[in-house]
Amino acid sequence: MFKIHSVTGRIFIGVIIGMVVGILSIAMSPIFGFPLFSMFGFGTLITFVMMGFTLGLVGIFDYHPILGFKMRWWMRGSVMGFIFALMYILLSYETMEVIMESNIVSWMGLNSPFWALIDGVSIGLFMGWMETKYAGEGSNIPLK
Do 70 and 25 contact (CB within 8 A), yes or no? Predict the structure, then answer.
């Protein structure tokens, strides 16, 4: 896909994945009783697009300068996914409670909105893997 690995390619891949996840959540919002175009849906879209953008930028850091260990793609992806999902849950806790109480989710026994942290980590891992596979990683990749 990208002949030369670059930070721009990482950002592009992350933003595209974030847009797909956000648009899918907007499309599924009527299932949970929300209008198709709601503030919650657009907030979800913006959160996942920004997660992809940030994860693309963080991909140039392959070595932690203070703690002195290599940061692999799975570590960066899971940590960024966890942080963004936690922020997302804390800012929309009441709405997430409504989703968790719906018939689609409640039969699984998942009552707390904090179960969505697993989704955030999974999406972060997928973004990190795709960005690293197709656009490279590390401080030696160019910006263009």
Answer: no
